Amino acid sequence: MKRRNLFKILIGMLVIIILLWGIILYVYLDQNNKSDYYGIVYEREAPEFTLTDQDGSKVSLSDFKDKLVLIFFGYTHCPDICPMTMSVMNNVVDQLGDQADQVQVVFVTVDPERDTQEKLKSYVPYYNENFIGLTGTPEEIDKVADDYNIFYSKEEVESSSEYLMGHNSSVLLITPDGEILMKYPQNRMDPASIAGDIESIL
Amino acid sequence: MKTTLLLGVIFFAFAQFSSAEGDIAINDAWVREVPPGSSVSAIYMTIQSNGDEDDKLVSMSSKAAESAELHTSKVDSNGVATMEMIEVLDIPSNNSIDFQPGGMHIMLIGLKESLVGKDSVNLKLVFEKAGEVMIEVPVKKGQEGGHKHHH
Ligand SMILES: [Cu+2]
Hints:
The complex is a heterodimer. By secondary structure, chain A is an alpha+beta fold. Chain A contains five helices and ten strands; from the N terminus they run H-E-E-E-E-H-E-H-E-H-E-E-E-E-H. In chain A, strands 1-10-9-4-5-6-2-3 form an eight-stranded mixed β-sheet, sandwiched between helices. Chain A has a two-stranded antiparallel sheet with strand order 7-8. In chain A, a hairpin with an 8-residue loop joins strand 7 and strand 8 (about 165-170). The longest helix of chain A has about 30 residues, at about 1-30. Chain B is mainly beta. Chain B has a single domain, classed as Immunoglobulin-like (Sandwich). Chain B has one helix and eleven strands; from the N terminus they run H-E-E-E-E-E-E-E-E-E-E-E. In chain B, strand 5 (about 65-75) and strand 6 form a beta hairpin. The longest helix of chain B is centred in the N-terminal third of the chain and has 14 residues, at about 1-15. Chain B is globular. Chain B starts with a helix and ends in an 11-residue tail after the last strand. The interface of A and B includes residues 77, 78, 124, 161 and 183 of A. Strand 8 of chain A pairs antiparallel with strand 6 (about 80-85) of chain B.
């Protein structure tokens, strides 16, 4: 008789333990998945930088304190990936409507040798007149790219073009409080989804 | 006689939309409008092979640029984008090959004039068996709105 009761108690405890375990696991997984964002959550402090824009003015990240910044590293002698990305950014801004003025798109060249201030002036505003293009000395660009973990290199290829660049082609999203919250690699370039992320942040 | 005429008209109507040169047809070609002052751009299209023989795309040129090369864009797992040149492209029989943004493209290097405001550029493709195919490629703005990658 007593044995039977003990058995019942043990089964009861086992059920409770399994239930608790399930709840803990659920809460844990839920936290890990807290982002319903389209972008890849990155969460790193955005390093400060100062470079030169297409009009020759010095521009720092801290100039955009109240804005959300979409920053992309590329080069103008790029016929495919960079124009695609610029078009996507323009599309994102279009979809934001009134909120667009809370967003700053920044293009940083990784090819300062060819991408002078004048070159950026004819390139960047073509996609959107509010976009900012940044260049600098090779050393300055090197430092910023390094701070942002952006790999780039000159590719000497058997091509008629002088040279091509390999470069990290992800767009980084910096929140108004200066955090690189997300990355958008080339396989996550759907403008509506990126705009959706921005709307939920702003 | 009437049937032949009708077929002729139908054929002519289709010829307006695709340039069919024997066993090779080039469809949906467009060249990306790029900002003024740009020296490079990319042409996208679909090469359709209707023949029973394999062919090869061996060279290309355009009057709009100093040179034209076949490239493919690649993005590695770290997000680094590069372009590779393809010397010769195999065109398997009864098959179609897509050139699209983020993938294969014909890169125009050394644009002779701005594409802004231009209607089209000319393109000559040279196939090993089908020979030369000449097309006019319309200039279009990139509409990167939710195009799908086919990887
Ligand atoms: Cu290319």
